[in-house]
Design goal:
four-stranded antiparallel β-sheet, Transferase(Phosphotransferase), domain 1
Length: 153
């Protein structure tokens, strides 16, 4: 069932209307998906990222000419939740831990409101932006019935 997946390409693009120093690309790397499914996955993220401010902002879709993979051009995020917790576990108060859990649950709720599901929720696909110390979530979907999401916080 889990045919679509995202990987992070840490090659970055400079400047987007001078709002961000970098943007990050997520690659729809599953070659078993049809072109239509890949395009629908990208469109789904674009739509949800506009609707919900805590879903990481997506600026567009591009295709890698060398391998044909589709890429979403998104805001840069700094750390995964796993890395953030490893670096800060001694300093985090319970209030911050509860905030992380609440925001993750809220993002899942928003995605479920769109009749979508998460298929691989783990601390490696939840990311944090140190730029403005806010939590954002990345939505990555495929197909019309089942969607795959990664989150950025």
């Amino acid at each position: 069932m889990n045919r679509a997946h995202a990987s992070i390409d840490y090659n970055t693009l400079r400047g987007f209307h001078n709002e961000y120093e970098f943007v990050k690309q997520a690659i729809l790397a599953d070659n078993s998906l049809t072109e239509y499914e890949k395009t629908e996955a990208a469109e789904s993220h674009l739509n949800i990222s506009v609707k919900y401010p805590k879903i990481v902002k997506c600026y567009g879709l591009t295709q890698n000419a060398s391998n044909g993979n589709y890429m979403l051009v998104m805001s840069r995020m700094d750390l995964s939740l796993r890395e953030y917790l490893q670096q800060n576990h001694n300093h985090l108060k319970w209030k911050e831990r509860i905030k992380i859990a609440f925001l993750t649950i809220n993002a899942l709720y928003q995605i479920h409101e769109e009749n979508s599901i998460h298929r691989d929720l783990n601390s490696g696909n939840i990311l944090y932006s140190q730029f403005n110390e806010t939590y954002h979530y990345f939505h990555h979907a495929h197909g019309s019935l089942f969607h795959y999401y990664s989150y950025f916080f």
